[in-house]
UniProtKB/TrEMBL annotation:
Superkingdom in the source lineage: Eukaryota
Protein name: 5307_t:CDS:1
């Protein structure tokens, strides 16, 4: 029987985590108090962790990703959308779209569009289609303890595709 042991520190709690390169993972947290901080004293909500070196790199994410969804475009760009209220220095994420274009040189960071979605999405779902487009589906239009007819958002956002290319 094996056992688990701590082997590193991502500096940001992992609400979402994805493998973005063979040895790198991207961590996304909701807006809360993490070890990672920006120079202006705000807490950081995203980091990139190198599985080989054990180093964490803080990423610049401005909107609250709590209750968000994510998927990958056909070209490898990560898209994340929706979220929650403004809290702990983060802007509201309900109508946000965030893009992370992968890179090998350590310069990549989030592109954050706080008001890009036409309608708010909280606990939405995203799916990559065979042609590389991504659909953004469902959720609620606001944070709620229990979904109802007033908050339910059973809509499908228009499909989209990234025009960005990997290096």
């Amino acid at each position: 029987m094996g056992k688990w042991r701590e082997i590193g520190n991502t500096t940001v709690a992992a609400m979402h985590i994805v493998l973005v390169r063979p040895t790198k993972i991207l961590i996304i947290d909701r807006a809360e108090k993490n070890r990672a901080m920006y120079s202006d004293g705000r807490y950081a909500y995203s980091s990139e962790y190198d599985l080989t070196t054990g180093r964490s790199r803080t990423l610049n994410l401005k909107t609250n990703t709590f209750c968000s969804a994510g998927s990958f475009f056909g070209n490898g760009t990560l898209i994340n959308s929706g979220g929650a209220e403004n809290i702990s220095g983060a802007q509201a994420g309900f109508q946000s779209v965030r893009l992370f274009n992968l890179c090998d040189d350590g310069s990549c960071d989030w592109l954050d569009f706080p008001s890009y979605l036409e309608i708010a999405r909280w606990y939405n779902t995203m799916v990559t289609l065979p042609d590389g487009r991504v659909f953004n589906i469902g959720g609620s239009i606001k944070a709620t303890g229990a979904n109802d007819n007033l908050a339910n958002n059973p809509t499908l956002s228009g499909s989209c595709t990234s025009t960005r290319r990997n290096p």
